[in-house]
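Recall the central idea of this unit: under ordinary conditions, the amino acid sequence of a chain determines the structure it adopts. In this exercise we apply that idea directly, starting from the sequence alone.
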Amino acid sequence: MVGDDAVGGAALRDEQVARLVEEVDRARDPLRAKRLMEALVLARSDADAGGAPTLERTRRWQGLVLGAPTGFRTRPALAHAGAVRYGLERDTEALFAASMEQASDPLVPAISRAARAHLDVCYFHPFADGNGRAARLALDFVLTQAGLGLHAAGPVFLVARRAGDPGGAFGFMHIIDYLTGPIA
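Accordingly, the structure predicted from this sequence is:
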């Protein structure tokens, strides 16, 4: 467990993203957890190498998550038992790729970039499956690159957020800001 001074800028003592994978994903499916951990290791290695969480990088991470090479989805997608539809236009893939490139803009604070990268993956829904896991990896990539990590991952990754929520993006960024600190 992280100490009482976990939030507010204290250095991380525990690896919370990996802990969430072990506690939540492994309980759901051990193979799912193994693949997600492999993708997390790759995403962090990519973050250490520099650059943006590009479409190509997210495809590689997603290939590990799903256990097979994957590309950008080729048709509209449904999620949440068909309650949410993600359209597909001629420029959807290019718009998503541009949004991922912007996640390394040094003029934007890392917390804002991490939140946006996560939300862009969720709302563009670039892959046929596993987009929530891809969003986790994109957020972790941006934080890792900035020398930051999450003191608690559950409130960030397990609470559902809807695209139509007017204050949702700001609220999400605020949660990430509150739960993020430097990597010890």
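The first strand starts at residue 77 and ends at 79.
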